[in-house]
Design brief:
The chain is mainly alpha-helical. The protein has a single domain, classed as Outer membrane efflux proteins (OEP), CATH 1.20.1600. It has a two-stranded antiparallel sheet. Strands 2-3 form a two-stranded antiparallel sheet. Helix 1 runs antiparallel to helix 4, helix 1 runs antiparallel to helix 6 and helix 5 runs antiparallel to helix 6. The longest helix is centred in the N-terminal third of the chain and has 67 residues. The two termini are about 40 Å apart. About 25% of the residues are buried.
Amino acid sequence: MLYDFGKVSGAVKQSEAQVLRQQAMVLKQLDAVALEAAQAVVQVHRYQTLLDIAKDQVQAVEKVMETAQLRASAGISTQSDPIQAESRVDSARANRLQVQTQLAQWRERLRTLLGGAVPQMIAPLPDQLARSIPMDIVPDDGLLPDVLVARAERQAATAQIDIARAQRYPTLSLDASANKAMAGTNANASERGGLNHSIALNLSSVLYQGGALDAQVRSAIAAEEAAGQRVETARLRAGDQTRSFREQIIGAQARLGALASRKRTIAIARDLYREQYKLGTRSILDLLNAEQEIYQAAAEEEAVQHDLWDQRIAYIGATGQTREVYGLNNQTIQGMDVRP
């Protein structure tokens, strides 16, 4: 083939774009697994912490029950007090079992994502890392797999346009042949068993396909426009998610201060109720409700703290920093070199 008006070069560009698309798809899956693994770590630590809080609640309510039993045995309070306290103890134990079950489920999920054993205890989450993450990151198009996939699709569509347009033009080729008579006289060479050589220029073209070539061009142009829209959509989605997660992070940080203050206030009220109950000026229900509020305040504070980590993880993913933050760049993963 001497010249084909870009048919072969277009096919090469299309194949190269498809390779880039598949590489971007691998990066997308890599980021997705890293995101799920990080979220699973947060969830394991969440329920690990909630389990400690639930154990503290069981112990606190058991102490209230012991106090109520002593007072009832001494005739200072009614027999209904230890019964009510025992009911709360059973409820606290049931809650502890539920948290243990959720912890076990998330540990198994993390085991699957890590492909190996999970440590018995997850270390406290690194606040230093959280403080090092800037909140004004602008998503880098070159790091976002969705954008890379859409760009590769647009390149493939552009190459398809070139191919479709080139089909309208002929292909010029050079043909060479050699013929030899196996028996008798070669008619072209006029000698017995002679060898004949020939060189020819061929010009081939599709004369008529009923409008198929024009339809292929229009289809390729539409595919390119659609891919271009997917690029812009991916960019807008990344920007929107980044701003949304940033606002959620700011809101969660503000709530943490209020929740810590609430927990301290309830703890003071609980201690006061405990003394008043011993003096007979406060009912058992007031003390049990105070213990319940202590647990709820502590659990809510931990929930917001871990929600904050979830939002930070999502923020890292939305800005395209996943591979950099988790140290995946310049690594070979399943035979593929991961580059920044």
